[in-house]
Design goal:
- This protein is α/β, with parallel strands linked by helices.
- The chain has a single domain (34-203), classed as Rossmann fold (3-Layer(aba) Sandwich).
- The chain is 39% helix and 13% strand.
- It contains seven helices and five strands, in the order E-H-E-H-H-E-H-E-H-H-E-H.
- It has helices at 48-62, 71-77, 86-105, 119-128, 141-147, 152-157, 188-203; strands spanning 36-41, 66-70, 109-113, 132-138, 179-182.
- The longest helix has 20 residues, at 86-105.
- The chain is globular.
- It starts with 35 loop residues before the first strand and ends with a helix.
- 37% of the residues are buried.
């Protein structure tokens, strides 16, 4: 199989290659009552949506109950009233965390993909959710800018998007994430496999 590297934040139809579930993951399909939140954090363009969408396809193939909460979609549907100040960004993450916690407590594996730039609010969500995996989707800023599928970095550099994470607003990288996906060095399949193995290990840890 030809290896594919992550080159965009989002994935168009037919560009994700989903491998067969590894032998060690077969039992995961029989576990329908254990919820979990998998929190993807990273710069815009790092690959959060790409990886979370591919993981969702793997979980679907395994028969796992799951829900994908994409940061852009939540902004449009649940958080239209919020801006991009630190207070508003924290509130945005709290709302995503609240929904993720509800779903997790009802036996759903939640894949939450949001920049979530501030470490303290991510830790607040971790403390709230019973079962939580933090996935740091990592790529250097220059790589994210080169990808820039929506042209956001170009607008930020031109001063059209103030308080843009990574340009004039900080991104606080996780200190001890359960999973780190290095999307400038790994294939999509390698990153997805890391996440699926972490889900497997967490669900069967107790």
């Amino acid at each position: 199989m030809t290896q594919k590297y992550i080159s965009n934040l989002t994935v168009g139809a037919g560009t994700i290659v989903v491998t067969e579930a590894a032998e060690g993951h077969k039992n995961i399909a029989r576990t329908l009552g254990r919820g979990l939140t998998v929190w993807f954090t990273g710069l815009s363009g790092a690959g959060k949506s790409t990886i979370s969408q591919a993981v969702a396809k793997r979980l679907n193939a395994m028969g796992m109950r799951h829900e994908l909460l994409d940061g852009d979609t939540v902004r449009q549907q649940l958080c239209k009233d919020l801006g991009f100040s630190k207070l508003d960004r924290d509130e945005n993450i709290r709302r995503i965390g609240f929904v993720a916690d509800l779903l997790t407590r009802n036996g759903v594996v939640v894949l939450a993909a949001a920049i979530s730039p501030y470490r303290s609010i991510r830790e607040e969500v971790r403390a709230r959710v019973r079962d939580f995996i933090e996935v740091y989707v990592s790529a250097p800023l220059n790589v994210c800018e080169e990808r820039d599928p929506k042209g956001l970095y170009r607008k930020a550099r031109a001063g059209l998007l103030p308080q843009f994470t990574g340009i004039d607003d900080p991104y606080e990288a996780p200190e001890h994430p359960e999973v780190e996906c290095l999307t400038d060095r790994e294939t999509l399949e390698e990153s997805v496999e890391k996440v699926v193995r972490a889900i497997d290990a967490k669900i069967f840890s107790s």
